[in-house]
């Protein structure tokens, strides 16, 4: 097995290992880089990462290995290669990821790689059917989501100019990438509360993946940490719209990497709906924030 950095000349060999939105982002986002693994003439693994020169951090955001090449240490090899080279250049390598537990392959991928330590963070992934979602929505007392933020609730599709640019900047900074690079974002189901200056104070981003019959709360955050009721109010608006659209075969995936959102999920979602947990892996024993 050999490793290489991915560039314009060899990207087409590794492209089939990526999902469509990742292919688009890889071709468009100059801040995204890749390492590939190949066996003779066969591309069998890929790792995507970003680099923050100011913080000296390399973030691993995606790893995939072909089915026929799994369980051969390829994922760990790519991770070790990247982390070792980055360390020599003064960069710390880390990755935030979801896993079902310590026996999940995504967890083992870092646990089995030398010089990585893993810590569990607040947050996780809740998965529910339309009926379960409706039960959650109807169980929330109205007093819990009385909105106090002075602003206007709009869908992302209604935003333009300054507000839209601010939203794009926030999403890009979060590591999601820009919506134009993420074709699954549903701008008609995504909401923002904007103040009189057009600045988003609350932001809830919804994606839809038709092949998986899955809606996802991909991003949810309030500008001020004490705006929990306002965030809940906006989330309730979004998930109510989703529950009205969901077909029997659809599911909702609710990711909660933001602490305030995770607290809301723990309060209102049944524990059995939490299917994955949030972890951070850091190279050389460090857990960089």
Walk me through what this model shows.
- By secondary structure, this protein is of the alpha+beta class.
- It folds into 2 domains: 89 residues, Gcn5-related N-acetyltransferase (GNAT) (Aminopeptidase, 3-Layer(aba) Sandwich), CATH 3.40.630; 153 residues, 3-Layer(aba) Sandwich (Aminopeptidase).
- It is built from 8 helices and 12 strands.
- Strands 1-2-3-4-5-12-6-11-10-9-8-7 form a 12-stranded mixed sheet, sandwiched between helices.
- β8 and β9 form a beta hairpin.
- α5 runs antiparallel to α7.
- The longest helix has 18 residues.
- It is globular.
In short:
With 289 residues, the protein is of the alpha+beta class.
- Major β-sheet profile: 12 strands, mixed
Total number of β-strand segments? 12
What would you call the shape? globular
Give the neighbour order of strands across the main sheet. 1-2-3-4-5-12-6-11-10-9-8-7
Query: What portion of residues is helical?
Result: 25-40%
| Domains (count) | 2
Strand content: 25-35%
Termini separation: 33 Å
